[in-house]
Amino acid sequence: MASSLYTVVIDAHDMRAQAAFWCAVLDWKVVYADEHEVTIGADASATPGLCFVTVPESKTLKNRLHLDLNPDDRDAEVERIVGLGARRVDVGQSAQVTWAVLADPEGNEFCVLSPKRSLRD
């Protein structure tokens, strides 16, 4: 049997604040928390989730892995997420791309795409 994606683990200085930000972005909730990690998801039985863990070091380079969000309206979603504490970032994308690059409050880049109906769009 093949594996399935369970969680994406994200290093953080403030795992609880990062979890709260991403809960607001994705309309998810905290499904598990202890002193070492906070896991969020649509609900406790829906995978994958995001798991935040505290690390001492700061982020120094562009992420090698990032999340892509698929909204109904890209521009409206970008404005909503910026209002939650994200910021726009330039990672070298051209002005003609169909996505927006943002960073969460700790600087982790992610993209807000134009609406997609499948993984082939």
TrEMBL record:
InterPro entries: Glyas_Bleomycin-R_OHBP_Dase (IPR029068), Glyoxalase_6 (IPR041581), VOC_core (IPR037523)
Pfam families per UniProt: Glyoxalase_6 (PF18029)
Domain VOC: 4-115
UniProt superkingdom: Bacteria
Name the record gives this protein: VOC family protein
